[in-house]
Write a structure and sequence with these properties.
Helix content is 0%, strand content 3%. The protein contains no helices and two strands. The relative contact order is 0.21.
């Protein structure tokens, strides 16, 4: 996979997580909007450049469920709440098929958990 560099941003429309950059030759602006009906779902490949612009609906909010399906040979430097060192292999995983080449590293539990991003001033919570 590709890990793009991250930088801080000061855009209050979004959560305080870092922003990836260095997507050349792709433009920051533009893209093809994907509008769906309420209650619908969108699936896409993790290599698809994507973003979610602010929800302008006055009486609803977006929900998201992020699931990563990946090779057992991949390291998992995941940090959902900026409390874990991103170079750490956070082995909060469930192997569903095949062999784990890093089984000797052991596993951790409750390392990741459902969470709500910080409220950025809207009446409906998180900003992404």
């Amino acid at each position: 996979g590709v890990l793009y560099p991250m930088k801080a941003h000061s855009d209050d429309r979004f959560d305080p997580a870092g922003e990836s950059y260095g997507f050349e030759p792709y433009d920051r602006e533009g893209g093809d909007p994907v509008e769906i009906k309420a209650g619908s779902v969108v699936f896409f490949n993790g290599y698809t450049l994507h973003r979610s612009l602010p929800n302008r609906s006055p009486d609803s909010f977006r929900r998201s469920l992020v699931i990563h399906y990946m090779s057992a040979e991949s390291l998992l430097p995941w940090d959902c709440d900026q409390t874990i060192t991103l170079t750490q292999d956070n082995r909060d995983v469930i192997v569903v098929a095949g062999m784990d080449p890093y089984k000797d590293k052991g596993y951790v539990t409750n390392n990741t958990f459902p969470f709500v991003r910080p409220d950025k001033g809207s009446s409906h919570g998180g900003g992404a």
